[in-house]
């Protein structure tokens, strides 16, 4: 990430932008100058208005901004970039634009608002993840965390997405689906309906259970949701690293699904001879079994010049870069 501005370097005459990343778990706000240097950072609660409602989302965003500017009283904000989970349709963009308008017209934040009309950017979380991850206006982001989705944009401004259908009939290759496949394999092995695997022992040890049947109490009676179940996916990764054939197959299947998503997006946006970057985002890519390497091998068969990278910056930074780009600062490569 870029170096931070020191307190002694803060200049009230500078135009600054806010980069905001709002998800289902937390909201992050960065204060950035015209070069992309960070002066402040704040966090607050979730701001996916589709799940928590518009007033609560607005409160989280306001709190994140207040935290980010607490050491920069009177900072002159010329632009805002906002990327929120759940903003997938034009109607959603209009709703969030109204929310942003309320921030600078009604909210008592310690900010000198110098917003230009063109300096407000509202988009979805995948777009800011791509821009932050690549520091570029084009490329592909393949997100594999609790859920999964691929999103890309090419130099002509055309975009494409694949996946992102949620855990009930999508999210292939995600932490949730890896964990579910592991739990199913463990149950089948325990019953004798499937091949032997190390997975039952991994689950028992991690959850401190006496017998596999205790999983019913943990997952069903305690009301575990998608997030809690997805958190078990690293156990499948560890079992695969220990040589367990069933766990290895589960990860192979996940890697194939993630590669398919990425290839689908890339094929719609880039020609085989084009050079572009694919940024891997989310906890699944921290696999000790090097899923990112497998993705790169698969993609290079179709796109020889592709580069698979880890994120250069966090999504909130991408939101700030989009605001700077809209202000004509030209901070993004093409």
UniProtKB/TrEMBL annotation:
Superkingdom: Bacteria
Record-linked InterPro entries: ATPase_BadF (IPR002731), ATPase_NBD (IPR043129), Euk-type_GlcNAc_Kinase (IPR052519)
Pfam family, one: BcrAD_BadFG
Stretches assigned to the ATPase BadF/BadG/BcrA/BcrD type domain: 18-323
Classification via PANTHER family: N-ACETYL-D-GLUCOSAMINE KINASE (PTHR43190)
Protein name: ATPase
Annotated source species: Laspinema olomoucense D3b
């Amino acid at each position: 990430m870029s170096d931070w501005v020191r307190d002694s370097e803060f200049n009230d005459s500078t135009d600054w932008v806010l980069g905001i990343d709002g998800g289902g778990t937390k909201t992050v706000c960065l204060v950035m100058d015209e070069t992309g240097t960070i002066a402040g950072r704040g966090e607050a609660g979730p701001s996916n208005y589709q799940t928590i409602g518009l007033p609560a989302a607005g409160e989280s965003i306001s709190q994140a901004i207040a935290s980010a500017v607490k050491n920069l009283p009177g900072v002159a904000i010329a632009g805002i970039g906002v990327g929120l989970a759940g903003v997938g349709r034009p109607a959603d963009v209009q709703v969030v634009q109204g929310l942003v308008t309320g921030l600078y017209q009604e909210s008592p934040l310690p900010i000198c608002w110098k917003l230009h009309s063109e300096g407000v950017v509202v988009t979805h979380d995948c777009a800011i993840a791509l821009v932050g991850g690549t520091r570029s206006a084009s490329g592909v982001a393949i997100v594999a965390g609790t859920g999964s989705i691929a999103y890309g944009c090419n130099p002509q401004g055309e975009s494409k997405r694949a996946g992102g259908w949620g855990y009930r009939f999508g999210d292939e290759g995600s932490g949730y689906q890896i964990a579910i496949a592991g739990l199913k394999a463990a149950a089948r092995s325990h019953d004798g309906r499937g091949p032997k695997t190390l997975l039952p022992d991994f689950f028992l040890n991690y959850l401190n259970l006496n017998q596999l049947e205790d999983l019913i109490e943990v997952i069903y009676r305690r009301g575990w949701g998608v997030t809690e179940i997805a958190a078990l996916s690293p156990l499948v990764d560890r079992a695969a690293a220990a040589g367990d054939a069933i766990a290895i197959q589960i990860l192979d299947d996940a890697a194939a699904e993630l590669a398919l998503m990425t290839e689908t997006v890339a094929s719609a946006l880039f020609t085989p001879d084009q050079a572009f970057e694919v940024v891997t985002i989310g906890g699944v890519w921290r696999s000790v079994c090097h899923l990112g390497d497998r993705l790169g091998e698969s993609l290079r068969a179709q796109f020889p010049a592709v580069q698979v990278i880890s994120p250069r910056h966090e999504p909130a930074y991408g939101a700030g870069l989009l605001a700077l780009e809209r202000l004509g600062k030209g901070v993004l490569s093409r």
